[in-house]
């Protein structure tokens, strides 16, 4: 995987601080498109996605040893590849066949859908693909 999850990210930690931390540890530049950061405040986490051939295991190891990350209690681990995604904002009463065909359409990824588990209370669904490339 080309992604690393940063965990224990306090609500007070701004995205720009994480970007600078990643830049300091990796020697890469967010401005140059070497990586991107997606904040996930409800999980107190962030995902760093690298665009090049970065050794994510080595980056996670360096971040976990970094004194600034330790001060903030931020930890890193490689994001494991998954075959499932959660799709949100699905209108009520949407047939699962429609969801399957939507995600199998080339414009929307074109991956083979193995299963659709609808979560009507959340207007969402968990879509499982035949391989991890569909969930990218």
From TrEMBL:
Domain PARP14 second RRM: 1-80
Pfam family, one: RRM_PARP14_3
Organism annotation: Formicarius rufipectus
Protein name: PAR14 polymerase
């Amino acid at each position: 995987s080309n992604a690393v999850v940063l965990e224990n990210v306090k609500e007070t930690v701004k995205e720009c601080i994480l970007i600078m931390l990643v830049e300091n540890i990796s020697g890469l530049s967010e401005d140059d498109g070497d990586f991107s950061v997606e904040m996930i405040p409800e999980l107190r986490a962030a995902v760093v996605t690298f665009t090049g051939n970065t050794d994510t295991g080595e980056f996670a190891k360096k971040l976990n040893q970094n004194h600034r990350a330790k001060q903030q209690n931020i930890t890193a681990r490689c994001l494991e590849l998954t075959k499932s995604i959660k799709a949100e904002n699905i209108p009520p009463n949407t047939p699962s066949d429609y969801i399957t065909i939507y995600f199998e359409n080339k414009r929307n990824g074109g991956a083979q859908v193995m299963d659709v588990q609808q979560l009507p209370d959340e207007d969402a669904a968990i879509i499982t693909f035949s391989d991890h490339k569909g969930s990218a």
